[in-house]
Write a structure and sequence with these properties.
mainly alpha, two-stranded antiparallel ribbon
Length: 129
C-alpha cells in the first residue's frame, strides 16, 4: 500500500512539473476546450501568449502561480477574454489571476463600474453609521 502512495505522489509531482514547463501549451489547450464547449472562435497559437509569462497579476499585483500549481487558487494564472462576446482570438486575451478572471465573469466594463460604484456607496454609508 505504501508503494502505491509513493507512486501516486511521484506521478503527481511529475504531472505538476510537466504543467509548469509547458504552461503556454496547457493554457492554450484548456482555452481551446472551453471555446469548443461554448461554441466560441479560437485562433490562438503559442506566440499569442506573452513570453515570458507575467509574474504578477496586472489587476491586483499579486504574484501569479503556475497553471500546474492549483487551478482554483486565486493567484493561479488565467487566460481571460477581454471582450466576452468574442472568442479566444488574437488581441482579445490577457493573463490575469484566476480571482480577477472569476470576478469579471461575464460582466461588461460598464456593469463592473456600476457594481463598484454601488458597493463603494454601500461601504461609505456603513462607515458613516
Amino acid at each position: 500500500m505504501e508503494s502505491m502512495k509513493s507512486t501516486e505522489r511521484t506521478y503527481s509531482n511529475y504531472t505538476r512539473g510537466y504543467l509548469k514547463r509547458r504552461r503556454h501549451v496547457v493554457m492554450l489547450r484548456l482555452a481551446r476546450g472551453r471555446a469548443r464547449r461554448k461554441g466560441l472562435e479560437f485562433n490562438l497559437t503559442p506566440t499569442d501568449i506573452p513570453s515570458p509569462l507575467p509574474t504578477h497579476c496586472p489587476v491586483f499585483g499579486i504574484k501569479l502561480k503556475s497553471v500546474g500549481d492549483c487551478t482554483s487558487d486565486p493567484a493561479t494564472m488565467s487566460l481571460d477574454r477581454i471582450d466576452n462576446s468574442l472568442g479566444y482570438v488574437r488581441g482579445n486575451v490577457v493573463i490575469v489571476s484566476w480571482r480577477a478572471n472569476w470576478l469579471k465573469g461575464n460582466a461588461s466594463v460598464e456593469e463592473l463600474k456600476k457594481l463598484a460604484k454601488f458597493y463603494s456607496k454601500m461601504q461609505n454609508k456603513r462607515r458613516a453609521q
